[in-house]
Amino acid sequence: MADDLEYTLIYTDWGWLGAARSPRGLVSLALPHSTAEGAMSALGMPIGAECCGVGFAEFEKKLRDYLAGKQVAFDEILDLVAATNFQRQVWLAAREIPYGETRSYAWVATRLGNPKACRAVGQALGKNPLPIVIPCHRVLSSGGTLGGFSGGIDTKRRLLALEGMPCPGF
Predict the structure, then answer these.
(1) CA–CA dist 126, 112 (Å, integer)
(2) Rounded to whole angstroms, what are the CA distances from 33 to 10, 13, 36, 50, 70?
(3) Contact status, residue 137 vs residue 159, Cβ threshold 8 Å
(4) Residue 138 and residue 164: Cα distance in Å, rounded?
(5) Residues 93-116, buried b or exposed e (16+ Cβ, 10 A)?
(6) Which residues does the annotation mark as catalytic?
(7) Do 100 and 163 meet the contact criterion of CB atoms below 8 Å apart?
(8) Disulfide check for 66: which of 52, 72, 121, 159 has CB 3.0–4.6 Å away?
């Protein structure tokens, strides 16, 4: 990771999460892990790296509130400079999906002006560095099945249920 990144570890009832930011904005979010080391590793931080944590208090509160079932607006500034233009477009389209609602991969592809790009949309969402903040868990296949999720299907189901949505496979 770049030298200009700061990160924090956040313990919740779901487990350890990690967040990293650059001076330009949030860069990555590690979904819950059973250990702090797991969250650090998911962020790409070496075990034993010094945790900054300064200035993350508001974001940490939002994450805790969200994981406790409260509706939260993740309006933080994002640093997506490492993304391709297509990934950035997909992620920003996913960020528009309201809390408690889902859309399809086809919806995202159509929104970007390329209705046949469903598979490419799925691949871009699979590389989303900021799950929850960029709510890719709200994107389902056109048939209503869950599709994929970088944090695992069980976590996707759990996040959808947290937002009060019926989940396929429950």
Answers:
(1) 17
(2) 10, 11, 7, 19, 21
(3) yes
(4) 12
(5) bbbebebeebbbbbbbbbbbeeee
(6) 136
(7) yes
(8) 72
pLDDT given for residue 46 in this prediction: 67
Q: Tokens for 27?
A: 């860069």
Q: Are 43 and 32 in contact (CB under 8 A)?
A: no
User: What does the pLDDT read at residue 141?
Assistant: 82
- 44-93: pLDDT as tens digits: 876 656 666 667 889 999 999 999 999 999 999 999 999 999 999 999 99
Report CA-CA distances (Å) from 125 to 11, 44, 99, 135: 25, 19, 17, 9
* Integer CA distances (angstroms), 106 to 60, 97, 168, in order: 32, 13, 18
Question: How far are the Cα atoms of 68, 86, 163 from residue 148, in angstroms, in the given order?
Answer: 24, 19, 18
Q: CA angle 53-55-61, nearest 5°?
A: 85
